Amino acid sequence: SAVISQKPSRDICQRGTSLTIQCQVDSQVTMMFWYRQQPGQSLTLIATANQGSEATYESGFVIDKFPISRPNLTFSTLTVSNMSPEDSSIYLCSVEFGGVSGANVLTFGAGSRLTVL
Amino acid sequence: ILNVEQSPQSLHVQEGDSTNFTCSFPSSNFYALHWYRWETAKSPEALFVMTLNGDEKKKGRISATLNTKEGYSYLYIKGSQPEDSATYLCARLRSSSNYKLTFGKGTLLTVNP
Predict the structure, then answer these.
(1) Gap between the Cα atoms of B106 and B49, Å rounded
(2) CB within 8 Å of A112: residues ≥ 6 apart
(3) Residue A45 and residue B100: Cβ atoms within 8 Å?
(4) pLDDT of amino acid A103
(5) B109–chain A Cβ distance below 8 A for any pair
(6) A90 Cβ under 8 Å from any chain B Cβ
(7) Which residue of A lies nearest to B35 if distances are taken between CA atoms?
(8) Span B55-94, pLDDT tens digits
């Protein structure tokens, strides 16, 4: 299975600032996914990061707020821009990888817990 | 049901107890259901992928069943241990043509020694 390194693991940020989260995979993967879990809410897909093209955003998420880079097949970044307290969440990157009984599942990083003051 | 719903939201059991919790999802246009375990400060870890109505999967003391016609899945843990303490997430695959999952809010299980 793939191993994902994600950083920072946690951070405390000031309102109005931006923070970039990095995700490194030990294998080449076609698609990388960025999820968010706000307190008490479900894990929600923000966008799919595609190598060589713009990221595909889910309804309710926009590029200006969550710019994504995907310079190669093993790395991606997610920036949370102009943060407000509502952006306090756990952010996770994930990749699709064969695993459970041959079916493809998501492998996740350990997450980045952001607190915005 | 429009979204993936899990119940109960949280659960406390004693070591050695068996327990189960529920995942409900829209029964139309079903492709697959995933179960993940998420321990605090760790990555979510895949437990099962279920695709067929009547599917039963087992991994050690943990098992899961699937009813796609009525839109629910049960996760069972036999003889709970403190190391089973985690949030258990279920997720529905949205379509067969991409790899996007809709997650429930999870069930937080705490096993007391």
Answers:
(1) 16
(2) A6, A7, A8, A9, A10, A11, A21, A90, A91, A92
(3) yes
(4) 64
(5) no
(6) no
(7) A105
(8) 999 999 999 999 999 999 999 999 999 999 999 999 998 8
